[in-house]
Structures are given as structure tokens and as C-alpha cells.
């Protein structure tokens, strides 16, 4: 069997979602590191794989996929072991809805190309503001849905999306004391091997100075 290839960057929240899901579903993969700061994503070779010049990109089953949520949906549909979504359509929609509040609303405005446009003097304030605004809504939603994790006591797609966003929250200095449920869930997830192995500081391409 051909091993899957994941094109990833250590501090990319989008890449981390896919790393977590691959780990949870016990899918072996080989990481290929794309240094966003060095502009590897714009190289001719990588642009052929991903014309959007973003990470992650996953080569699996003879296909090449981009965009983390499309990848996660493919893994969910083709590898039902360790499901990240329940069978009930309404519950699936509810979980997807909260997950998309991260992947479509909060996280995109912290992409490297957005932060570069905002500028060094404003990017920390920018990131902190939009994460805080987004977390306010998520915290309210979790008051109704959370158990041990975001939706009861089983890990779901929402947990896979939430954990990497906490990396950015800490990086931008968000006051997490305002979000006790999110903080508690993040602590629970941090002890799970699939999440620990996917953490940005556990990646081989993470500089030693940041570990």
C-alpha cells in the first residue's frame, strides 16, 4: 500500500487539523514540510500540487486534496473507523456548524498572507481581537453542548478544529480566563496522544528555539 503524503507546516492550524484526524484514525502518513516563511508554498513544484499555494495538501488513495475541511470529510467518508461525526443528520449539522465558526470565521483572518497584509505593528492586536470575538460565541454554544469534550464525551470534528485554534489564541495573547469551558476542553485534549503528536511543537520542522 502506498503511504499517504501530507504537505504541512508546523504552525499551520489547518495542517494540524489534518494531522490530528490522521492520528485519530491511525492512518500512516509521511510528512513533507512546506516552510511558509521561506515561501516554499509558492514554488513551481508545490504550486502544481496546490494552485492556491496553501497548506495542507494530502496525497492519499491516488488523489491529491487541498483545504483541511475537504480532507477531513474525505477521511470521514472513507475511513469510518473512529468517527468524528455521529450518524444523526441533525447532530452532524450542529457539530459542523460550530466547527465552521472556527474554520470559516476565526482562523482565516490569521492566515500568514492576511497577517502580512495587516502588518507587523497591528497583527497581534488583529489576531487577538478576532479570536476573542469568535470564542465568545463558541463559549456560549459549549454551555449547551459540552461534556468532557465539545459535544458530550466523544471526540468530534469540533474538537479536531478547536485544539489548533488554541495554539493561535495563546500565541496572540488571548485572555483565556474569559473562556473556562474552552480552556477545560483544551486541557482534556492535550492529554490525548493523537493531539499531542499533532501539536505544533512536536513537529520536526518546528525550530528548536520555539520548542
From TrEMBL:
Official protein name in the record: Maleylacetoacetate isomerase
What biological-process terms (Gene Ontology) are attached?
Answer: glutathione metabolic process; L-phenylalanine catabolic process
Q: Which GO terms describe its cellular component?
A: mitochondrion
Q: Which residues form the GST C-terminal domain?
A: 88-208
What residues does the GST N-terminal domain cover?
2-83
Example of a GO MF term: maleylacetoacetate isomerase activity
Origin species, per record, is Basidiobolus meristosporus CBS 931.73
Keyword annotations for this protein?
Answer: Isomerase
Question: One Pfam annotation, family name?
Answer: GST_N_3
Matching entries from InterPro entries are given as: Glutathione-S-Trfase_C-like, Glutathione-S-Trfase_C_sf, Glutathione_S-Trfase, Glutathione_S-Trfase_N, GST_Zeta, GST_Zeta_C, GST_Zeta_N, Thioredoxin-like_sf
The family database entries (PANTHER family) matched by this protein are listed as:
MALEYLACETOACETATE ISOMERASE (PTHR42673:SF4)
Can you tell me which family this protein belongs to?
Belongs to the GST superfamily. Zeta family.
Amino acid at each position: 500500500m502506498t503511504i499517504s503524503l501530507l504537505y504541512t507546516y508546523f504552525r499551520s492550524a489547518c495542517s494540524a487539523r489534518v494531522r490530528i484526524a490522521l492520528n485519530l484514525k491511525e492512518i500512516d502518513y509521511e510528512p513533507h514540510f512546506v516552510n511558509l516563511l521561506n515561501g516554499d508554498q509558492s514554488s513551481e513544484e508545490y504550486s502544481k500540487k496546490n494552485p492556491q499555494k496553501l497548506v495542507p495538501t494530502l496525497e492519499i488513495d491516488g488523489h491529491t486534496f487541498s483545504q483541511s475541511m475537504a480532507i477531513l470529510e474525505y477521511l470521514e467518508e472513507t475511513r469510518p473507523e473512529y468517527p468524528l461525526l455521529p450518524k444523526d443528520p441533525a447532530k452532524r449539522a450542529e457539530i459542523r456548524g460550530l466547527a465552521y465558526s472556527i474554520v470559516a470565521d476565526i482562523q482565516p483572518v490569521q492566515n500568514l498572507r492576511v497577517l502580512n497584509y495587516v502588518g507587523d505593528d497591528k497583527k497581534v492586536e488583529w489576531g487577538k481581537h478576532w479570536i476573542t470575538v469568535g470564542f465568545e460565541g463558541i463559549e456560549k454554544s459549549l454551555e449547551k453542548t459540552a461534556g468532557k469534550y465539545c459535544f458530550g464525551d466523544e471526540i468530534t470534528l469540533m474538537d479536531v478544529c478547536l485544539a489548533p485554534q488554541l495554539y493561535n489564541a495563546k500565541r496572540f495573547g488571548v485572555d483565556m480566563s474569559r473562556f473556562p469551558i474552552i480552556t477545560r476542553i483544551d486541557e482534556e485534549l492535550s492529554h490525548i496522544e493523537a493531539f499531542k503528536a499533532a501539536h505544533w511543537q512536536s513537529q520536526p520542522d518546528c525550530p528548536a528555539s520555539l520548542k
